[in-house]
Amino acid sequence: MKKKIVVLTGAGISAESGIQTFRASDGLWENHLIEDVATPEAFARNPILVHQFYNERRKAVLAAKPNAAHIGLVELEAHFDLQIITQNVDDLHERAGSKNVLHLHGELLKARTTHPVKPLYINCLEDLKVTDKGTDGYPLRPHIVWFGEPVPLIEKATQLTAQADMFIVIGTSLNVYPAAGLIQQIAFNIPLVVIDTKIPAIGTYPNLHLYEEVASLGVKKLVNELLKGKEKFFKNLNYK
Questions:
Q1: Checking CA distances to 48, which of 23, 82, 142, 197 falls within 20 to 30 Å?
Q2: Residue 123 phi/psi, 5° resolution?
Q3: Which residues are catalytic, by number?
Q4: In terms of Cα–Cα distance, which of 202, 193, 210 is closest to 173?
Q5: Do the domain assignments include residue 13?
């Protein structure tokens, strides 16, 4: 049976594809205050601005291409039972060829209606307008989990993480919850791999492997080491 690898990815894996990180050090996202474009209150207050903002982000995603880090994870999928949990709202993992991707924070290339109980979901490759509605008659909004909203898929992500034989963290500061709390759900002795230009504070783990690199280089090194010498990672887990 293949070992199960669960990968948590953040903005750092898409940065090399030209996708801007969600929040800069000054608290802005593409020169906008988070409070103006990424909260339910912002959408209620100024839906035109919010739609304009995500329309531009959507165009940027459609123009971007998967990079070597995305492709490297696809290579791992050929040898392991690989599950990606991403905080990113782009579709670069899917376009690279990854088959098992769970989007914690929504998907930019989808929209959903504002129905309070049973929203409808649609694919969305074009600009959204405030006049656009779903077949249920409710206005459409970006399929993004905004600040102040629950994260519907966190329970599923937690279950997947608890089943991991290896957990890989790529390109995330581990500062945004509840996603950051997933690392606390792994079995303590499994291989924990962290790839980032700045390694986040994660505490002490007995089977910890750090790659202080951009995602493309870190993933390449990890893939090479995993495929050539799995025992380095799984030596205490009776790997076969």
A1: 23
A2: -70, 145
A3: 105
A4: 202
A5: yes
Please check whether residues 54 and 155 belong to one and the same domain.
no
Question: SS3 sequence, 175-217?
Answer: CCCCHHHHHHHCCCCCCEEEECCCCCCCCCCCCEEEECCCHHH
pLDDT tens, position by position, for the chain (240 residues)? Answer: 889 999 999 999 999 999 976 655 555 566 777 888 999 999 999 999 999 999 999 999 999 999 999 999 999 999 999 999 999 999 999 999 999 999 999 999 999 999 999 999 999 999 999 999 999 999 999 999 999 999 999 999 999 999 999 999 999 988 889 999 999 999 989 999 999 999 988 888 889 999 999 999 999 999 999 988 766 777 655 443
Both 30 and 49 in one domain: the answer is yes
DSSP bridge partners of 111: 122, 142
Q: How many residues does the chain have?
A: 240
CA 132 and chain centroid, separation: 27
Angstrom distance (rounded) from CA 64 to CA 183: 29
Residue 166 shares a structural domain with residue 215: yes
Peptide bond into 47 cis (omega under 30): no
- Contacts of the segment 203-210: beta carbons below 8 A, 24+ positions apart: 206/236, 207/233, 207/236, 209/233
Q: How many CB atoms lie within 10 A of CB 73?
A: 28
User: Tokens 């600009």 label which residue?
Assistant: 127
Question: Which amino acid type is present at position 19?
Answer: I
